[in-house]
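User: Let's play a game. I give you a shape written as tokens, and you guess the letters that built it. Ready? Here's round one.
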């Protein structure tokens, strides 16, 4: 794989969300939850302070195709495809006309987050009708494997089926190419990243904490997780200060 080093400035912050809604203060899996009130304040701040919320495709073009990267660039991503996105997050994103990419677990559409343990109740996942409707409204979708498994811990053939199979399933649902992949739990290694490239994806998103500019390749893009406890100052610190990785980006699992 030819490694293309992206420019280190201006930094691009790819933010990672999961669920947005109203939750009792969660004691575990706090990075999976974001209170809708805080989410609305976060999006309002981005708008008020002139941040450039760009699509994942625009970020790729800036990092790897020589297109200009705007100052204060932010990308919004959501993992898992939880149905509460439609009720709580999407109206706010539409208000500000912010692009977003949602990563779907292709084998569980219309099911629940059954892979999560130690939670009071599983969250419902979007069904096919909802996905198609949101696509018409402008939401972009990517693949998050077939069964939400730790790919670097799977036998190679199983990992391959998860990576290739999720692309095929979602392209059948959407009737269009699915160019983006997100590693469940952030678990990946070089073999897994190579499979993502071989499958025909353009990007692979991780749970590594840094600006996207520090990726070793398009298949190891860092993101910044937004957690339930993040205040607005903490949110801004992640965007502006958490850019240089503390650890090597060469291996997983991380996060």
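Assistant: Ready! My guess for every position:
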């Amino acid at each position: 794989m030819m490694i293309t080093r992206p420019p280190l400035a201006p930094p691009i912050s790819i933010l990672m969300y999961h669920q947005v809604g109203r939750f009792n203060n969660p004691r575990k899996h706090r990075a999976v939850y974001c209170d809708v009130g805080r989410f609305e304040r976060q999006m309002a701040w981005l708008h008020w302070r002139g941040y450039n919320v760009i699509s994942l495709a625009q970020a790729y073009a800036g990092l790897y195709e020589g297109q200009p990267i705007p100052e204060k660039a932010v990308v919004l991503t959501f993992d898992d495809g939880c149905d509460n996105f439609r009720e709580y997050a999407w109206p706010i994103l539409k208000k500000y006309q912010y692009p977003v990419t949602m990563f779907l677990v292709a084998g569980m559409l219309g099911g629940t987050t059954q892979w999560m343990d130690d939670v009071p109740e599983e969250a419902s996942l979007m069904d096919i009708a909802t996905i198609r409707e949101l696509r018409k409204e402008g939401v972009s979708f990517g693949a998050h494997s077939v069964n939400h498994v730790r790919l670097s811990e799977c036998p190679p053939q199983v990992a391959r089926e998860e990576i290739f199979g999720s692309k095929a399933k979602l392209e059948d649902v959407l009737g269009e190419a699915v160019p983006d992949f997100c590693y469940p739990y952030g678990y990946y290694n070089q073999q897994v990243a190579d499979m993502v490239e071989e499958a025909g994806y353009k990007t692979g998103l991780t749970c590594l904490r840094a600006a996207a500019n520090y990726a070793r390749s398009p298949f190891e893009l860092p993101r910044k997780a937004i957690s339930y406890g993040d205040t607005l100052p903490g949110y801004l610190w992640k965007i502006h200060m958490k850019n240089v990785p503390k650890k090597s980006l060469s291996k997983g699992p991380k996060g």
